[in-house]
Design goal:
With 182 residues, the protein is mostly helical. The protein contains 9 helices and no strands. The radius of gyration is 16 Å and the shape is globular.
């Protein structure tokens, strides 16, 4: 049971309702995370703006979902693992084997594996990656814009991981449990 209340869309603050309506239009549902973050219209607006901006960036939806899985596994966020396993499979069309591999910062594709390993290092080191970490990512043909976007995707996912871990948000996707806590 969630430790913070999850209002219905109708119970949400007036300033959050148009933002939640946009989520409903885009996804067909309003996930519990969005309703929870909607307690602060400013937080919801900021989250949605950064998420939307990154969706227009250089990284594919498949890589962004894999990064989300890598970070969620690292932070043992069952809500985010559940949401991103669902999105990776059903929206980004990532195979089940690659979804599972992403949780461990792995991929059969060398370039994707380099990005996931870098994302994991960013999370583990709180951004204090080594020159070698950057060199490995650059050797996999990621430019500086891509490096920045990987870091921002990590940060965005840390944000949601922490919100969900603090709140123990009720999972409204098929449940996936972190391996460390399984």
């Amino acid at each position: 049971m969630s430790r913070l209340s999850i209002p219905t869309v109708d119970q949400s603050l007036a300033a959050s309702k148009p933002l939640l309506a946009a989520v409903q239009q885009q996804l067909g549902v309003v996930p519990n995370l969005m309703k929870l973050v909607g307690h602060s219209p400013a937080a919801l607006e900021g989250y949605l703006a950064l998420n939307g901006a990154l969706a227009k960036g250089k990284l594919s939806v498949q890589l962004r979902e894999r990064i989300a899985l890598t970070v969620a596994e690292y932070n043992a966020c069952d809500y985010c693992l559940s949401a991103h396993a669902y999105l990776a499979t059903n929206v980004a069309k990532v195979s089940a084997a690659e979804v599972d591999a992403a949780r461990d910062a792995r991929s059969d594709d060398a370039r994707t594996a380099a990005a996931l390993k870098f994302a994991r290092r960013v999370a583990e080191s709180r951004g204090r990656v080594s020159d070698a970490d950057l060199a490995t990512l650059r050797a996999a043909d990621f430019d500086e814009a891509s490096v920045i976007e990987i870091v921002l995707n990590v940060a965005l996912n840390v944000l949601t991981n922490y919100v969900n871990n603090v709140a123990s948000t009720d999972i409204d996707f098929p449940v996936v449990t972190a391996k460390a806590t399984a």
